[in-house]
Amino acid sequence: MALPSAQGDGPTSSRWDGGAEKTDFNAKRKKKVAEIYQALNSDPADVAALRRMAISEGGLLTDEIRQKVWPKLLNVNTSDPPPISGKDLRQVSKDYQQVLLDVRRSLRRFPPGMPEKQREGLQEELIDIILLILERNPQLHYYQGYHDIVVTFLLVVGEQLTTSLVEKLSTHHLRDFMDPTMDNTKHILNYLMPIIDQVNPELHDFMQSAEVGTIFALSWLITWFGHVLSDFRHVVRLYDFFLACHPLMPIYFAAVIVLYREQEVLDCDCDMASVHHLLSQIPQDLPYETLISRAGDLFVQFPPSELAREAAAQQQAEKTAASTFKDFELASAQQRPDTVLRQRFRGLLRPEDRTKDVLTKPRTNRFVKLAVMGLTVALGAAALAVVKSALEWAPKFQLQLFP
Amino acid sequence: MASEMESSLEASFSSSGAVSGASVFLPPARSRIFKIIVIGDSNVGKTCLTYRFCAGRFPDRTEATIGVDFRERAVEIDGERIKIQLWDTAGQERFRKSMVQHYYRNVHAVVFVYDMTNMASFHSLPSWIEECKQHLLASDIPRILVGNKCDLRSAIQVPTDLAQKFADTHSMPLFETSAKNPNDNDHVEAIFMTLAHKLKSHKPLMLSQPPDNGIILKPEPKPAVTCWC
């Protein structure tokens, strides 16, 4: 099964950023803004609806909206006082030197027209925020690229909120990247090739024989593409999407980019250097909305639980020092509930059944399901089943994020 | 130091006649590849050095390298077109352990870089050398030591004699240079070209198209790999 090309969007799908009729565009946008505010203003806020908005075309549209919605997506109470530290962290933090080096070199992350003074002020804030989060969470370890994530929040929501939001993100979505070693990060990267294999075995085999590895996608994954995209609007659009989704969604998005570039990859010399070079240079004009919806489709069709075994096998084949025991445990633990669920939902493809099912499910899961349904309505009940099992794969994300 | 380099260039030139002769009998379509990995602490200038060699200038601004970056440049040595691939690696320790090892495969030479204005980056060298030993199967892979940022004269912390002693202990040539100083353009160039010449006269290298079974090259010529020397 090959993904249709970007041109295959068809006349029925309108684009927020496309050249469609302007009035239509404005009307749709206005409607979406109204819907977002409605969800925000209901008591309690309709987080499921906000998730759908963050995923669906155009995402959350403006930074002003993001300032209000991102905390909801992360379940952060904005009226809580921001965390502070009594210590002079620059004196005592073991990470200060590395953070300083990385932040000083991160000029490209700031808007080109920003006055130097203002940028330098933000860089100082960036250092303090990172050190504060690290101090409050000694289990978290700084990695180069973490600063690319934090700066995105800083530029959108400002200093005070950034600390709370990124702290939450770091103990959930980014948790695996912040282990003492990168073994778990490597494990997540091992999902990439199995996803590609499901969609395009030819491309997969080509990349395998080139021995390209997966490091070309490392910075994509651990910075949520903040390190590699130069247009900040694209970065925040992706953050809307990732904040509303399962923590493994960035690896699906990475796969979708590789799949989108199929022809370029196959035209390349079949060796590690050529393929790595091609893929690590990310095109800046990707059709983001199309790719986002494809990533969602892939996630639903090939959920993490289904790929866990293959990812683990890949790890073994590479003879890394990673915890294969854990992989296999996960793979086998997921096998049964997943299969059972899929069989159970196979007969429930009629819309009324789907609705009923959503309503009878515990509240915790419903939020996520609705969000993904907003993304891929066509997949219906199958989506419910697989997303539920996907969450079981990483139960630690579930309760805290979707209360 | 300059004279040491020149003599090494000369030596390579004089010893490589047989190689060019042999290439006449082989299809010229594929150029050989020299794969060089560049390692060292964060912020010592690995990205700037490789950029300088491949693009011919100091980059406007560089960021932290996450994972591994790759640059290449085609050069001609004794009439033979050769691709020099530079693999620029992340400096932060956590990336080395589980991430970078894949990129040590089939490496022909190693460039260790330290920052002459940062003693800590010099003191890290033994651990980089150890790291490298663990990844590379062959022990006689050419290695060189580069002290970068020599243009920052007033801030130098690593004296040349100390660095030279260290280089001697580990049987590596030492180069002190600056990726930034425009007058040093030829120098950065010469460092990598010296290495390329050394490699050219040293041992067989892989072709552009690696064998499908992913053979890891060892210093001894293996029957599966075409030997042009």
Automatic annotation (TrEMBL), chain A:
InterPro entries according to UniProt: Rab-GAP-TBC_dom, Rab-GAP_TBC_sf, TBC20/Gyp8-like
Gene Ontology MF term list: GTPase activator activity; small GTPase binding
Keyword Iron-sulfur part of the UniProt annotation: no
First-listed, main subcellular location of the protein, grouped into a coarse class: membrane
Subcellular location: Membrane
Bias type Basic and acidic residues, positions: 18-27
Superkingdom in the source lineage: Eukaryota
Pfam annotation, one family: RabGAP-TBC
Keywords for this protein: GTPase activation, Membrane, Transmembrane, Transmembrane helix
Membrane-related topology note: Multi-pass membrane protein
Sequence segments annotated as region (Disordered): 1-29
The protein's name in its UniProt record: TBC1 domain family member 20
Annotated source species: Ailuropoda melanoleuca (Giant panda)
UniProtKB/TrEMBL annotation, chain B:
Membrane topology designation: Lipid-anchor
Key words of the record: GTP-binding, Hydrolase, Lipoprotein, Membrane, Methylation, Nucleotide-binding, Prenylation
Keyword Lipoprotein set for record: yes
Protein's UniProt keywords contain Nucleotide-binding: yes
Domain of life: Eukaryota
This enzyme's EC code(s): 3.6.5.2
Pfam family, one: Ras
Annotated Gene Ontology cellular component terms: Golgi lumen; Golgi membrane; phagophore assembly site membrane
Cofactor(s) required, per the database record: Mg(2+)
Subcellular location: Endomembrane system
Catalytic reaction list: GTP + H2O = GDP + phosphate + H(+)
Principal EC category: hydrolase
MF term (GO), any: G protein activity
GO biological process: intra-Golgi vesicle-mediated transport; negative regulation of constitutive secretory pathway; protein localization to Golgi apparatus; protein localization to phagophore assembly site; Rab protein signal transduction; regulation of Golgi organization; regulation of retrograde vesicle-mediated transport, Golgi to ER; skeletal system morphogenesis
InterPro entries, alphabetized: P-loop_NTPase, Rab33A/B, Small_GTP-bd, Small_GTPase
Gene3D superfamilies: P-loop containing nucleotide triphosphate hydrolases
PANTHER family the record matches: PTHR47978
Family that this chain belongs to: Belongs to the small GTPase superfamily. Rab family.
Protein name: small monomeric GTPase
Organism: Ailuropoda melanoleuca
